[in-house]
Amino acid sequence: EEEHIWRYHKHEMQEYQCGSILIKRINAPVQLVWSLVRRFDQPQGYKRFIQSCTVNGDGKVGSIRNVNVVTGLPATSSTERLEILDEEEHIFSYRILGGDHRLKNYWSIITLHSEMINGRPGTLAIESYVVDTPEGNSKEDTCFFVETVIKCNLKSLADVSERLALQTSVEHLTL
Ligand code: A8S
C-alpha cells in the first residue's frame, strides 16, 4: 500500500493548492474494476454525480470530454482531458480544463492493484488529487468537498464491480 502510494501518488503541491489520497478495497478482480475505470468516455458507468458525457477524440490520451453533472450540485458541467491510460499498470489520470464549477486545475490519478481479500481476488483502488484552493474557501473545506465526491465515486465503483463479479460467478454455477 505505502509503496503504491509512494510510486504513483506523489504530487507536486503548491502553497495555494490542496489535495489528499483515498483508498478503497473492492471484492472484485482488478480486470473487472479496470473495465469500468478505463472508460474515459463513460464516467457515468459508476460515478453517480455525472448525468452525461461526450468525448472529442479517439478515447486515447489527450482526448477531451465534456461532462454534465446531475442537478442539486454547485456545478453543471466540466471539461476534462485524459492524461494517463496505462492498461498494464492500471493507471488512469485526468485533468480539469474548465467548466461551470469551482475546481480550478484539478488533477487526479487512480491506480488499481490486485490483492487477495478473504482468499479471493480483490482490488485495492487508490485515488489522489490536487486542486487550487478557490478564493474565499479554506483548504479544509475544499478537501472536504472533493473527498466527499471521491468517497461516493469509490463506493459506487465498489458496488457496481461487486455486483458484476457476483453475476459472473452465478453464471458459472451449475446447479
Ligand atoms: C471526479 C471527482 C470530482 C468531481 C467533481 C471531484 C464534479 O464532477 C462534481 C461537482 C463539482 O462541483 C465539480 O473524479 C465537478 O468525479 C461532482 C463538476 C468537476
From TrEMBL:
InterPro entries: Plant_def-hormone_signal (IPR050279), Polyketide_cyclase/dehydratase (IPR019587), START-like_dom_sf (IPR023393). Its main location: cytoplasm. It is found in: Cytoplasm; Nucleus. One of its GO terms (biological process) is abscisic acid-activated signaling pathway. The keyword Transferase does not apply. The keyword Nucleus applies. Keywords: Abscisic acid signaling pathway, Cytoplasm, Nucleus, Protein phosphatase inhibitor, Receptor. One of its GO terms (molecular function) is abscisic acid binding. One of its GO terms (cellular component) is cytoplasm. It comes from the Eukaryota. Belongs to the PYR/PYL/RCAR abscisic acid intracellular receptor family. This is Uncharacterized protein.
